[in-house]
Amino acid sequence: MREKKSAIISICFISFVILVFTLADLIRQDRVFSETENKVLASRPEFAWDALFFGDYTADMENYLTEQFVGREKWITMKTSVDIALGRREINGVYLGTDGYLMEQHLPEQFTPIQEMKKIALLEKLVQEWNASVMLVPTADTVLWDRLPANAPCYDQVHFLEQVVQRIGEEHYIDVYTVLREHAKEEIYYRTDHHWTSLGAFYGYQAWAEAMGGKGDYDPADLEAVTEDFLGTLHSKVNLNLKAEAIRYFPETAAHPLKVTYDLKTVTDTCYAESYLDTKNKYGFFLDDNHGFIEIDTDTQNGKVLFVIKDSYANCFIPLLIPDYEKIYVMDLRYFNGRLFGFMKNYEPDEGMDVLVLYNCIHFLEDFAYLE
Amino acid sequence: MVFSSVVFLFRFLPLFFILYYLAPKRMKNFILFLGSLFFYAWGEPVYVLLMLFSTIVDYTHGRMLERLSGKRAAKCVLLSSVLINLLVLCFFKYADFLIQTVNLFFDTKLPLLNLPLPIGISFYTFQTMSYTIDVYRGEAQVQKNLLDFGVYVTMFPQLIAGPIVKYREVQKQLHSRGVNLCEISEGMKRFCIGLGKKVLLANSLGELWTLISESNLRQISVLTAWIGILAFAFQIYFDFSGYSDMAIGLGRMLGFIFPENFKYPYISGSVTEFWRRWHISLGSWFREYVYIPLGGNRKGLARQLLNILVVWLLTGIWHGAGWNFLLWGLWFAVALVLEKAFLGKLLSWLPKGVGILYTLFVVLGGWVLFALDTPAGILGYFRAMFGMTGVLIDGQALYLGREYLLLFLIAAAASMPFFGKVVEKLKKSGSGFGIAVYGLGEKVIPTVLLLLSIAGIVDATYNPFLYFRF
Are the beta carbons of A149 and B402 separated by less than 8 Å? Predict the structure, then answer.
C-alpha cells in the first residue's frame, strides 16, 4: 500500500512536468523573432510529400518545435546556471571573467599563420598605396587578460600585432594596445558586450592624436550616459540574469552642427541614433549601427579629409575626430563589393586625404578584405 | 526520433502513453505497433519499409520452420533467414566499406553507393535473427500472430540503440502482459535517469572530447590527451547506457522486462570482466549465436583462441563499417587471449586496483581506436598520450581540467555503484530520517533530472546569431 502510494506520487511528479509543458507548448503562440538571439526563429514547416520522403519535413519540424518551445529563454538560463554551478567559466564561447566581465573566447588555433599573413599583406598594400595609418584594437580578452579564468586559452593578438608593425612599419602603426593596457583597470570594455566603451575609444583617440596631432580635447569626466539598460551581445550568448550597464558618450561630440549622409541617401544632422536605445542593440546608437558608406561634414574648417576603413569598433571612435577633419568618409568593407582604390580616388581631393584603418584585431582577421 | 528531443518528450510520449493506457487490452499491441512505426518513420520515412520487409521475412521463415520442424529442409529455411538478414545488413551498412576496400587493394574505381545507414538496422536484424535461430533450435515458440511479431521487431523503446532483446526473453509478454503502478513509476524514473545521463553527462563531456580531438594533436600535452580520452570514455558510456536505461524504463512502462545492458563496466578487474559488464546484450548475442556454435572452448585451446578472434572482429565491425572498428575488435581479442593464456591468473593474484587500472588502460586505448577513424588521427593521439609531443602538462590541460573537474567527478561516481549504494543504505537504514530522505529523493531526483535535461535539449539549438556583432 505504502509502495503504491509512493509510486503514485512519483508518477504524478514526472507526468506533471511532461503534461504541463506539453499543454503549455500546444497553446503558446509562435514567435517570429527572438530579440535575445537576434534571429528569426524557425516557423512551422509546410507539409510536402517530397520533403517528408527525404526527411526534411521531420527535421524542420523538430527544429521548429525546439526553437519555439515554451519558455525557451528560461530553459537556456537554467542550463547556463547548471553549467556555472558545475564550475564552468566558459559558456557558449564566452569566458566569465572576474568582476562581471564577459569576454568573447578566441582560441589559439582560430587563425593560421597563412591567414594572418594574407591579411597583413592586404593591409600592407593599402598602407603603401595610401600612406594609411592603422589602429588595430585588441579585444577584451587580450587587454583584460588578468580577469580571464586562469590558463584560459587565448589567441595571441599581441604577437599578431607585432607582426603587423614589422610589416607596415612603425610610422603607420598606432599602438592602441599599450595605452589600453595602461588603463586596464578602468571601464574600457563593456562587461556584457564585445565592444570597447567610449572611454576605451577615448584612450584610442589619445594614441591616435599623439601620432597624428589631433586637436580634440576630451575629458573622461564629461562622459554622459545615454542609457543604463545595456545588455550586449555577450549577454545574449550566456543569457544569464546580469546587471545592465551604461552606454556613455562625449556630449560635446554632439554639440557641433553636422551633416551625416548614410549610404548616399539618408541625411541627418547627428552621428548618434537615439532610436537604437529602445532596442536590444543599443550600441547601434553610435553612427546608426552599420552602414556601408557614411559621409560626415563637420563644422571644422581646415580643409582636411579623412577616409576611414573600419568595423563597428570605429563607431564610437569616429565622433571624436570631428574637431580634426572637415570631411570624414567611413567605409565598411563588408557592405562594399566594388574596387576599393578606384572608389577612394573618387573621393580624394586634389590636396590628398588621410586614410585610417580601424578594426578590432579579430574582426580584422575575419573580415578585412577588398579588391584593389 | 530520438528520446532526447522536444518532439519525443512533448508530443509523442504523452500522446502515445495516453492512448496506450486508455486502450483495451486487445488493442494495446496494435497501438504499440502503429506508434512504433510512426516513431521510426519520423526519422526514416523510407527505411521504415525495409524494417517491415525484415519483419515479414522473419515471420514467414518462422512459420515455415514450424511446419518443417525436425526435417532437413528446416536447416535451409534457417539458412535462408540468416542470409537475408545478413545481406540486408551488409548491403546497407557495409557495401561502401567493401567497395572502398576493393578499390584500395585492387586499385579499381568502383563508385560508392552513398546510402544513408538505416537507423537501428544493426539492432533489429540481430533481434530477428535471434528469433529464427531460437525457433529452429526449439528454444522459442513460433509466433503465429503477425501483429505480435511486428511489435517485437519494431517496438520503439529498444529499436534504435538496444538493448538487443532476444525473442524468447519477451515472447510471453508479447502476448499478454500487465503493468501496475509500481512498474510504471519505476519505468518513468529509470527513463529520467537515462535521459539525464545522456543529456547532462554524455553531451557535456562529448563537447570536451570534440574540442580536444579536433585541436592540433601535435601540440597537446600528455595530460590533455588523457583528459580527452577519459571524456570520450564517459561520453560513450553515458550515451549508450543512458539510452539503454531509457529503453528499459519505457519497456517497463509498457509491461516489458528488458535485459540489463550495462553493469558498471569501468570497475572491471579484467578485460574479460569488462565485456561481461559492457553492452551485455550484444556480448551474449555473439556468445550464443557465434562463439558457442563455432565450438566455444570445447574444441581445444587453439580453436578457442580462433573463436575469440572471430567473435571480436565481428563485434568490432558490428559497431561501424571502418577499419578502425576491426582494429578495435582485434585489440580486445588480443587482451582476452592474453588473459586466457596467463594474464588472468596473474591479475587474480594482484590487488583488485591493479586489475582495474590495467583494464582502464586497455579500454581507454581501445577508445582511441574507436573514436578516431584515420590512421594519422589514431597514431597522433597515441603519440600525444605517451608523451611524444614532449609536453607533460600545459595551460590547456590545467584549464580544461579545472573547467570539467566537477563533471568528471560526478561522471566517475555515476559510473561506479556509488549512488546505488547510497540509495540502498538509506532504504535499509531503518531510521525514519533515512527512509524519509530516500522517499523524497527517489521522487524528486528523477524529476529534477528531467527538468535539467529539458533545459539541455532546448539549449542545444541555442546559437545566437550575432549579426550585430560587427
Answer: yes
